[in-house]
Amino acid sequence: MTIAERIRQVRRSMAKAAERAGRDPKSVTLVAVGKTQPTEAVARAVRAGITDLGENRVGEAAAKRPGVPPATWHLIGPLQRNKVKRALEVFDIVETVDRPELVLRLAMQLENHWPGRRLPVLLEVNIGGEPQKAGVSPAEAARLARAVLEQPQLELRGLMTVPPFEPDPAAVRPFFRALAALARELRQELGEPLEWLSMGMSHDFEVAIEEGATHVRVGTAIFGQRRTA
């Protein structure tokens, strides 16, 4: 199958999942993840209708973006403090804000180099409590959200998670449900809309949509298996 055909197939599955949940399929954004894929493959995805792209690594995205038609670029991998300025040059949205130090660094770099710019961000939540994964704990999410809200350069849009992998996608449902519940709690506590829930990947995006995902990050189902980095 071509990339365009795979995108159509993914969109059909997304629409069916949204309809099962009584949702408008247009309420879910497909973020095509091009990790390890060549620039031309990512460009083909955009030419086939993709509007949002996700990349895990700052350097890889920086190398690709000049060769790809206009799109909205999401950073979906960990961000080190020493790469913040470069990330801000490349990405339009940072989905992986997970600690106060990163909040301050993002705000400082924006103030120094992009005065007047507001960066949409998501809090990455380690919803499964896995020690090997990044993300703020659910218990600390409200504190981190307040830290973001204190910075006028940052716009808190919602939450993101990478749940524990389960062979059966249905087994991940409790984690997606927990993130949606956390978002509801934070909306009430903070008085902020927090409309975005970025959750679900190639293996489990249909379950994520059924549980309220507004953004799904799909790579393999669009581009095929990842290449050696």
The ordered string of helix (H) and strand (E) elements is: HEHEHEHEHEHEHEHEH
Structural class category = alpha/beta
Q: Could you give the order of strands across the largest sheet?
A: 7-6-5-4-3-2-1-8
**Residue share in helices?**
40-55%
Task: Note the overall shape.
Answer: globular
- The second-level CATH architecture is Alpha-Beta Barrel
Computed CA radius of gyration, to the nearest angstrom: 17 Å
At the third CATH level, what is the topology name? TIM Barrel
Secondary structure blueprint with pairings:
Layout: H1 3-20, E1 29-33, H2 39-47, E2 52-55, H3 58-64, E3 72-75, H4 84-90, E4 93-97, H5 100-113, E5 119-124, H6 141-149, E6 154-160, H7 173-190, E7 196-198, H8 205-210, E8 215-218, H9 220-223
Parallel strand pairs: 1-2, 1-8, 2-3, 3-4, 4-5, 5-6, 6-7
Helix pairs in contact: 3-4
Describe the model.
This protein has 229 residues and is of the alpha/beta class. It has one domain (3-219): Alpha-Beta Barrel (TIM Barrel), CATH 3.20.20.10. Helices cover 40% and strands 17% of the residues. The chain contains nine helices and eight strands. It has helices at residues 3-20, 39-47, 58-64, 84-90, 100-113, 141-149, 173-190, 205-210, 220-223, and strands at 29-33, 52-55, 72-75, 93-97, 119-124, 154-160, 196-198, 215-218. Strands 7-6-5-4-3-2-1-8 form an eight-stranded parallel sheet. Strand 4 (93-97), helix 5 (100-113) and strand 5 form a beta-alpha-beta unit.
Task: Please provide a brief summary of the model.
It contains 9 helices and 8 strands. The chain is α/β, with parallel strands linked by helices and 229 residues long. Helix 3 runs parallel beside helix 4 (84-90).
